[in-house]
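Protocol check, entry for the methods section draft. Step 1: assemble the input record (protein sequence plus ligand SMILES). Step 2: submit for complex structure prediction. Step 3: store the structure tokens unaltered in the notebook. Ligand used here: pyridoxal-5'-phosphate. Step 1 record:
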Amino acid sequence: MQMTHATLRRPKPPRSKAVLNGIEHLIRRMLKKHKTPFMLIKRAVLEKQYERFRKCLPDVTPYYAIKANPHPSVIKSFLSLGTGFDVASASEMKEVLRLGASPSKIIFANTIKSPEDIAFAKKRGVRLLTFDNEPELYKIARHYPRARVLVRIKVANHGSVVELSLKFGADPEQAFFLLRKARALGLVPTGVSFHVGSQSKNVENYLQALEITAGIFDEAEENGLPLKIVDIGGGFPIQHFDNEIGINFERMAQAIKREMKERFGRNIKFIAEPGRFLVGPSGILVTQVIGRTFRNNKNYYYLNDGIYADFSGMIFDHARYEFKTLRRGQRFLSTLAGPTCDSLDTLSTNEEITELYVGDVVYVKNIGAYSSASATSGFNGFSPAKIILV
Ligand SMILES: *Cc1c(COP(=O)(O)O)cnc(C)c1O
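Step 3, stored output:
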């Protein structure tokens, strides 16, 4: 739309007569009580995702990977639902223990752990640890004798949005050797873990990883080293856009379930470390336009949250989001940017969006995971969104 100087200087917001949907009514209500930016986490959605997981994979115990969203209220919600927890550091361990998690339901799933963190796991009775290399085994044996260990293997991450096998994972051919070494060092070799990469839409990654894992279980069994636990990791995908196709957790889970049944004995225990799947769909980020201008033949809208805060997933998580407004009307190709002084803090240069005015809301759904978790504490003085459980 062609803008004149007059409209730029003193835009008069027209009354919006939009029909609002349920989420938008909720946002309107919350706007009366809270300043933006804020992130609503819907408890009902956390529960729904948990139930979906349990229903589709009834034999797999979920350990919520708290790095996806470590907000205490989120952890407490999963605590009351009964999940275990996947932690990567002593701080994360302390946090879930402080909130009441049982040490027996925590997995220390970082294959590289500092000696202090290993000692802390021992002190607090966190029993299950992952590893993927020999030097780590010596370290664990020294600081935590008799710990139960899972060897993490490197598996294909084809089609996953976030690669998680570039830095971690032992060669599957080495797995049995490493487990035997663990036993020789006085540890308790307990099983195998893997991670197919985050937002993994390709079920083949899981099936292949399970097949490789079954081979390791057979080899270990034949050599007098029976294993008990298969940890299928995280990676389960979610939908970010309303009209996104190609993501079907139910169908994926069915194939995974079949593979588990076919390849493993009934005495084998399965666990998983879902992060994104459990918390991602629950989050709604609500921001407001704090400035607008006309540049490069386009409307530019500056929001009060950006790349340095709750949209940090656009960098670290390679995420793309669907931006929505409460105002309806003809859409124009526009740019959305964050509030900081850095040009990197641009959220989209090609949004088809209705004309917005200062104070108007821009919100994003399905942004509960890897968003606030990786926000800086307030670069340039712009604080990240307050998290509100509703
Ligand atoms: C990040 C991570 C997870 C969670 O992954 P999602 O893709 O969010 O499910 C689980 N386990 C490990 C070891 C991880 O690093």
